[in-house]
Automatic annotation (TrEMBL):
Cofactor(s) this protein requires: pyridoxal 5'-phosphate
Protein name: Aspartate aminotransferase
Pfam families in alphabetical order: Aminotran_1_2
GO biological process per UniProt: amino acid metabolic process
Family statement: Belongs to the class-I pyridoxal-phosphate-dependent aminotransferase family.
Domain called Aminotransferase class I/classII large: residue spans: 55-365
A single GO molecular function term of this UniProt record: pyridoxal phosphate binding
Gene3D superfamilies with a match to the protein in the record: Aspartate Aminotransferase, domain 1, Type I PLP-dependent aspartate aminotransferase-like (Major domain)
SUPFAM superfamilies assigned: PLP-dependent transferases
Keywords of the record: Aminotransferase, Pyridoxal phosphate, Transferase
UniProt xrefs under InterPro entries: Aminotransferase_I/II_large, AspAT/PAT-like, PyrdxlP-dep_Trfase, PyrdxlP-dep_Trfase_major, PyrdxlP-dep_Trfase_small
Amino acid sequence: MEDPAFFCVFPGKQITILPYLCRMLTISQRGNAMPPSPIRKLVPFAEAAKKKGTKVYHLNIGQPDIETPPQILDAVRHADFKVLEYSHSAGNESYRRKLVDYYKKVGIEVDHNQIIITTGGSEAIIFGFMACLDPGDEVIIPEPFYANYNGFAVEAEVVVKPITSSIETGFALPAISEFEKMITPRTKAIVICNPNNPTGYLYSQEEMDTLKQIVIKHNLFLFSDEAYREFAYDGKQISAMQLEGAEQNVILMDTISKRYSACGGRIGAFVTKNKQVLDAAMKFAQARLSPPSFAQILGEAAVDLPENYFDATRAEYLRRRDVLVKRLNAMDGVFCPNPGGAFYAMAKLPIDDSDKFCQWLLESFNHNNATVMLAPATGFYGTKGLGLNEVRLAYVLNVDDLNGAMDCLEAALKVYPGRTK
């Protein structure tokens, strides 16, 4: 059946207009629902401040200043290709076999056929969501959580159900009874990041056992983002892959980005012992053809770094953490729990609105011709209204610059018009 025409009458003329000529080009509901990055949305204000000659201390994003190991960059420089071909959709077998050795060193037993190399950890998360979840399914995530989980959920058309952890407890895992309250017939998975971004919280063995109990009892997937595995300061990182009895429930999502200060490499890994899940994820891997070849060379060379490579890096982050937390807790009205891992801290500030405060720092404040860029915590919560008086800080600058940033923050809090106490 053809679309009915309608008529517009002009003086002396009658013009037929077909409906398709009047349709507007619109973006999808998914495109409208896709959230902007709470971490990057303040970039234009930072750029404007720099144009005015203001030094900006960047504590807003997890881009390490630690030098990328020259050995792994050399491996890329010296790569001898006649043709830059596609790799296997699961990634180069030589790299996957080397990852088996890497995982064995950290207490994880896997086979190379249980690993899919991904374009960054982000693609590993997307593969997990797309392979395991249907539109309308629910995933429980302890909040505050990595903001991009929201975006990945929108892409997969799944529903994030946040379960709130508190800054007063250092963001410890909520009680098992709180998880039980959240579970519905549509609940399909729990997502964790360990050590955590944005809080730096390091889950204990007891907490990991609690998660194992929940996912086995309710037949849920456990997606475990372990991007910061090597950076655990107050205890040992417990991988979800080490939870005996939950092997079929666990999907590990990994990346070289923070581990080797290689964020631009865009190489990650999707790891699971669940063959059905792996086979489904492999279809998505085939649809995007292959992970990047040069970056796989980078990743493979990284596995060959000496075992003591992380000692100096871990010690440097620990030193920075201690300086940051001490400075924050010495400020009037500020509270910052000690993060056990990663290189992030969450702080509670005496402010009315973290979004306004972080923008004000860049637009209207400077201290000795410098200011500091922070990430408003509102973007890390799924529950509306939470995080208004919290910010995330990434201690990815050297100690001198960290102290400079803290000088700026301390001075700013004394004059901020929206200070609450």
